[in-house]
Amino acid sequence: MGKKDHLTIDKEVVQVIGRELLDWYYRNRRDLPWRKNQDPYKIWVSEIMLQQTRVDTVIPYFQRFIEQFPTLDDLAQAPEEQVIKAWEGLGYYSRVKNLHAAVKEVSAKYGSQVPDDLETISKLKGVGPYTAGAILSIAFNKKAPAVDGNVMRVFSRLFALTDDIALASTRKKMEHIALQVIPNNVPGDFNQALMELGALICTPSSPQCLFCPLRSVCNAYAEGIEEELPRKKKAKPPKQMKMVMLWLSQGQRALIEKRPDEGLLAGMWGLPTIQVAEEESMQEAHLFCDKNGLNVTNIKVAGKFEHIFSHQHWKVTVIQGEVSEWASPLPSSWSWMTADQVNEKPFSNVYRKALQLFI
DNA sequence: TAATCGTGGAT
DNA sequence: TATCCAAGATT
């Protein structure tokens, strides 16, 4: 068992970082809604929402979510569809399902008290290494690393590290560095200060080094390579996919489909959707309807649009038709919906785009 | 390790 | 327009 040699940070540098960064943070931190108090539940919600999501996007969702579910038990007791609805449009919907499940577990097993130790909190659904450290440090003042993309970018530049930040092993290395740098008295503030610096000064492109409180100890700045760091492997372009969404109406109602519990947009509602070989394929649309026992007339293209997920690029054709007769029962995931019900059920944005054509 | 999982803003 | 990527977790 060879012991990995980790980077050791000079003690005087640690002193400078702690002093200068905290001083900067206390003068420049943003007034964000989840910084009003240290309620572990609210910190938790904010950290889940902020995963891969911009602060400006999260703020209104956070406000509404906390207004709707002020306490952990309010959330634990709420029906799942209502909780998902509150997340509608935020994306990465497994986050909210995991959060809901984890909150129910905390309510049932831990007396509604968010665990304050790494072992227990890390077992909660949706709580990974970053989120665990963030909650422990921010809500409970515990010394724990909270290494997100900001922190990896700041450390990469500060210590001129060329590790690929897309690798999981790099995050562990960064956590080891964080533990050396985080002060014992204000770990939560310090972790937030690192992220705040990454968000406001040490930005991915055009970092504002002249305004950086850590400029005097930054290796990348000294070497003039701040724009070259961090190093990160390029992502694959999204897979091109041709899709058909169906608006199958009968009088004042239309068929909607609840998506499977796993995979893309799990648990969200949508229109019946198929992947097709050819764009605007009426033939494949007809075949799909036949297969599900539907007799459809007046079928035609209602509209087209594109939607890009992180890993899929959909070219969507929306095809509408009128259902004249159908074999019962309909597929169990299908349901008739009237126009006034559109805003009651959670639809992801890609389906909102399609629904706009009709409502 | 690499793929999966949303959306929208910035460059 | 294309690409990146934003307080990541899960498998």
TrEMBL record:
<dbReference type="Pfam" id="PF00730">
    <property type="entry name" value="HhH-GPD"/>
</dbReference>
<dbReference type="Pfam" id="PF00633">
    <property type="entry name" value="HHH"/>
</dbReference>
<dbReference type="InterPro" id="IPR003651">
    <property type="entry name" value="Endonuclease3_FeS-loop_motif"/>
</dbReference>
<dbReference type="Pfam" id="PF14815">
    <property type="entry name" value="NUDIX_4"/>
</dbReference>
<feature type="domain" description="HhH-GPD">
    <location>
        <begin position="49"/>
        <end position="200"/>
    </location>
</feature>
<dbReference type="InterPro" id="IPR023170">
    <property type="entry name" value="HhH_base_excis_C"/>
</dbReference>
<keyword id="KW-0479">Metal-binding</keyword>
<dbReference type="InterPro" id="IPR005760">
    <property type="entry name" value="A/G_AdeGlyc_MutY"/>
</dbReference>
<keyword id="KW-0326">Glycosidase</keyword>
<dbReference type="InterPro" id="IPR044298">
    <property type="entry name" value="MIG/MutY"/>
</dbReference>
<comment type="similarity">
    <text>Belongs to the Nth/MutY family.</text>
</comment>
<dbReference type="InterPro" id="IPR000445">
    <property type="entry name" value="HhH_motif"/>
</dbReference>
<dbReference type="InterPro" id="IPR011257">
    <property type="entry name" value="DNA_glycosylase"/>
</dbReference>
<dbReference type="GO" id="GO:0000701">
    <property type="term" value="F:purine-specific mismatch base pair DNA N-glycosylase activity"/>
</dbReference>
<dbReference type="InterPro" id="IPR003265">
    <property type="entry name" value="HhH-GPD_domain"/>
</dbReference>
<keyword id="KW-0227">DNA damage</keyword>
<keyword id="KW-0378">Hydrolase</keyword>
<keyword id="KW-0234">DNA repair</keyword>
<dbReference type="InterPro" id="IPR029119">
    <property type="entry name" value="MutY_C"/>
</dbReference>
<protein>
    <recommendedName>
        <fullName>Adenine DNA glycosylase</fullName>
        <ecNumber>3.2.2.31</ecNumber>
    </recommendedName>
</protein>
<keyword id="KW-0004">4Fe-4S</keyword>
<dbReference type="InterPro" id="IPR015797">
    <property type="entry name" value="NUDIX_hydrolase-like_dom_sf"/>
</dbReference>
<keyword id="KW-0411">Iron-sulfur</keyword>
<comment type="function">
    <text>Adenine glycosylase active on G-A mispairs.</text>
</comment>
<keyword id="KW-0408">Iron</keyword>
